[in-house]
């Protein structure tokens, strides 16, 4: 009787969690609330670049301006190896900046692990995994129009032949992207 009650409780709990787990992978676009005077692209880019210019030890930030959409901003493998290639990996913050012209940032964060010798990687948000420079583009994360990827893109065309990662602003929104790696 105790085991029947336990099993029933377990099934009920699982049924409640399944819809939440299924929807956890779907990232809805951020809502635009209210009207705000849009920033000029150059003003928005300058604002972000100023914020990111003061990198601290143990972290590195990257910025893909709206003008770079469709082309990756390279993240050198030495940065990935240093910050993410140890036993505890690194924390990744990815932000879609100024998608609505107001200077707001929509963001996600997750853990990322990189194996320096095998070039294998895995991330905690959605559990994607891959291998860099294996001729297969594999995205570590895409949040709205911002991609942390092992591929290289130029003018909307991509491949995965180089040992490096990249930050990419794609076409879902006219947005800039920010990526920060924290050891």
What can you tell me about this protein's structure?
The protein is 23% helix and 34% strand. The longest helix is centred in the first third of the chain and has 23 residues, at 2-24. With 183 residues, it is an alpha+beta fold. The strands form three sheets. The chain has a six-stranded antiparallel β-sheet. It has a four-stranded antiparallel β-sheet with strand order 2-11-8-7.
End-to-end Cα distance, whole Å, is 50 Å
Q: Supply Rg.
A: 19 Å
Derived from helix and strand composition plus strand pairing, the structural class reads alpha+beta
Number of helices: 3
Binned, the helix content reads 10-25%
Q: Based on CA inertia axes, which overall geometry fits?
A: globular
Q: Trace the largest sheet across and list its strands.
A: 1-12-3-4-5-6
Helix-strand sequence? HHEEHEEEEEEEEEE
In round numbers, the mean pLDDT is: 83
DSSP strand tally: 12
Largest sheet: 6 strands, antiparallel
Strand content: 25-35%
Low-confidence stretches: 5-27, 29-37
């Amino acid at each position: 009787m105790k085991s029947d009650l336990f099993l029933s409780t377990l099934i009920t709990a699982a049924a409640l969690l399944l819809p939440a787990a299924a929807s956890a992978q779907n990232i809805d676009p951020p809502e635009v609330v209210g009207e705000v005077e849009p920033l000029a692209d150059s003003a928005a880019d300058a604002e972000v670049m100023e914020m990111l210019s003061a990198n601290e030890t143990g972290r590195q930030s990257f910025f893909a301006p709206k003008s770079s959409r469709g082309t990756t901003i390279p993240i050198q493998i030495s940065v990935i190896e240093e910050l993410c290639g140890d036993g505890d990996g690194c924390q990744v913050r990815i932000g879609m900046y100024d998608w609505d012209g107001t200077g707001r940032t929509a963001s996600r964060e997750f853990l990322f692990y990189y194996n320096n010798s095998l070039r294998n990687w895995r991330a905690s948000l959605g559990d994607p995994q891959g291998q860099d420079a294996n001729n297969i583009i594999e995205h570590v994360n895409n949040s709205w129009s911002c991609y942390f990827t092992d591929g290289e893109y130029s003018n909307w065309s991509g491949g995965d032949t180089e040992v490096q990662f990249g930050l990419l602003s794609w076409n879902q929104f006219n947005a800039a992207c920010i990526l920060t790696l924290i050891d």
